[in-house]
Design a protein that fits this description.
Elements lengths: L9 E10 L2 E7 L8 E2 L2 E3 L6 H13 L1 E18 L2 E18 L7 E8 L10 H16 L10 H4 L1
Parallel strand pairs: 1-6
Antiparallel strand pairs: 1-2, 1-4, 2-3, 2-7, 5-6
Length: 157
């Protein structure tokens, strides 16, 4: 499926992984918004469930394994160039719990890192992403499934 100037909206998924006071962010390696910091995620593949897509995308982009727990939001990302729609994604973002893996930037991102909550403004994430991240921190504070701190130093990497 063609990403740029698509014939129909593209379904995409994202995962917000909270670990203690940090959130997992990626620096996008492709358009749209190449070079910007965001929530890890991407296009859903044919025959793939939303949950399978979140697991795959986060693993591919960051090396981190997750369990999607709850939908945080669904929204459009529409970008026009003149009168034409250049990009149109319908994105389903999940709160996720880290289950394993080691942080490592994938081939389609420029960087992946754990960012402290108070440092988020330095990363200039898009307004919708910032809203979803704030929802994820609230969810993590209330959920017994989301660990409040890493179990050991290995997980903190």
């Amino acid at each position: 499926m063609k990403r740029e100037y698509p014939k129909q909206p593209i379904v995409a998924v994202g995962g917000v992984v909270i670990q203690g006071s940090r959130v997992l962010l990626v620096r996008r390696g492709r358009e749209p918004h190449k070079g910007e910091w965001s929530i890890p995620g991407g296009m859903l593949e044919l025959g793939e469930s939303l949950v399978e897509g979140v697991r795959r995308e986060i693993r591919e982009e960051t090396g981190v394994h997750v369990e999607p727990l709850e939908i945080l939001g669904v929204f459009d990302r529409i970008q026009k160039k003149g009168p034409r729609v250049q990009y149109h994604y319908v994105i389903v973002d999940y709160a996720c719990r880290r289950t394993g893996g080691r942080l490592n930037s994938g081939s389609d991102v420029l960087d992946a890192r754990w960012v402290k909550r108070e440092e988020l403004p330095d990363y200039c994430v898009a307004q919708k992403a910032a809203l979803v991240i704030a929802r994820a921190f609230k969810f993590a504070e209330k959920s017994p499934k989301v660990p409040s701190a890493p179990k050991d130093a290995e997980q903190a990497l």
